[in-house]
Design a protein that fits this description.
Blueprint: H1 6-28, H2 36-59
Helix pairs in contact: 1-2
Length: 76
């Protein structure tokens, strides 16, 4: 997934979300043959979102990424 372009990742994310919606609808109407497919597609959506967010963070300046240096010290 990490080798795909941003546009391809966004397209796959749209398709996965649409498939997830359809699977949930089929599940509620009792027409879903493989309920484990919902879990697989949900994980695919999470993976795609993670890869997209990693690309956003990599392109941002260091001050905007929330690095440990920019965080205030924790009090105990």
């Amino acid at each position: 997934m990490r080798t795909l372009t941003r546009e391809e990742l966004e397209q796959r994310l749209r398709e996965a979300r649409e498939e997830l919606f359809n699977l949930k609808f089929q599940h509620k109407t009792g027409q879903l043959g493989n309920p484990l497919r919902i879990r697989e597609v949900r994980k695919d959506v999470a993976r795609l979102v993670t890869v997209l967010e990693e690309g956003e963070v990599a392109g941002a300046p260091a001050s905007e990424t929330g690095s440990a240096d920019a965080q205030p010290a924790r009090r105990e």
